């Protein structure tokens, strides 16, 4: 008998996990950019030509899927240049610093954290500020507290409004919080034999020990 599908978590770093459906979908998100040289036979793939053999002229503005942008990016050979999406620019970083909880991350980019981590692969002078914003107190930690509070105070309720403004990573954390609360309620009522750690925690522990072994 075949085993049930077990979801694979995202890479949560500069490299995707190619077994993760979330990372596969995230890699389709597009980046604004510019062709710094002629790109042979790529016009059709980038929606700029009718035939499969058409080239993208040098200087053309592009909307490039992340996976292709990473493949074409080369710091030594100027093939393409990549611009920051507006959600990662200084104006929005200022908004996050003021109050990260007011931002509808799902509307601005459903893979905000994962996509932002991938941007660190490109040579951008604002990379340190991007990393500071997405990974430290100005965004993730500030929103994480509210997400977990909400997940623990919405037992057997419609949570669609609570998760509507969250990116996909935050939604996974919310679901983990809800599952933990539900498991505890079942255990407290004698309906479960034991409480087990969530898959997110287990996967994080495995990665941590692997890094230590290396």
TrEMBL record:
It comes from the Eukaryota. Keywords: DNA replication, Nucleus. Residues 89-187 form the GINS subunit domain. The keyword Nucleus applies. One of its GO terms (biological process) is mitotic DNA replication initiation. Its main location: nucleus. Gene3D superfamilies: 1.20.58.2050. GO terms for cellular component: GINS complex. Residues 20-72 form the DNA replication complex GINS protein PSF3 N-terminal domain. It is found in: Nucleus. It holds the Pfam family PSF3_N. The GINS complex plays an essential role in the initiation of DNA replication. Belongs to the GINS3/PSF3 family. Component of the GINS complex. This is DNA replication complex GINS protein PSF3. It comes from Steatornis caripensis (Oilbird). The lineage of its organism: Eukaryota, Metazoa, Chordata, Craniata, Vertebrata.
């Amino acid at each position: 008998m075949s085993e049930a599908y077990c979801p694979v978590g995202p890479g949560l770093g500069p490299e995707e996990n190619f077994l993760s459906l979330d990372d596969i979908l995230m890699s389709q998100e597009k980046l604004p950019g510019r062709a710094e040289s002629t790109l042979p036979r790529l016009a059709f793939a980038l929606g700029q030509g009718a035939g499969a053999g058409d080239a993208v002229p040098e200087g053309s503005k592009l909307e490039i899927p992340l996976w292709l942008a990473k493949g074409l990016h080369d710091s030594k050979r100027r093939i393409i240049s990549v611009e920051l999406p507006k959600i990662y620019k200084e104006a929005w970083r200022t908004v996050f610093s003021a109050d990260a909880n007011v931002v509808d991350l799902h509307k601005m980019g459903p893979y905000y954290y994962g996509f932002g981590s991938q941007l660190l692969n490109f040579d951008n002078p604002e990379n340190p500020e991007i990393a500071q914003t997405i990974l430290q107190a100005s965004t993730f930690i500030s929103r994480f507290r509210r997400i977990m509070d909400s997940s623990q105070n919405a037992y057997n309720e419609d949570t669609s409004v609570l998760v509507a403004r969250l990116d996909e990573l935050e939604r996974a954390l919310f679901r983990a919080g809800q599952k933990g609360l539900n498991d505890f309620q079942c255990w407290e009522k004698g309906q479960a034999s034991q409480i087990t750690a969530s898959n997110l925690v287990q996967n994080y522990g495995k990665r941590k020990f692997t890094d230590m072994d290396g």
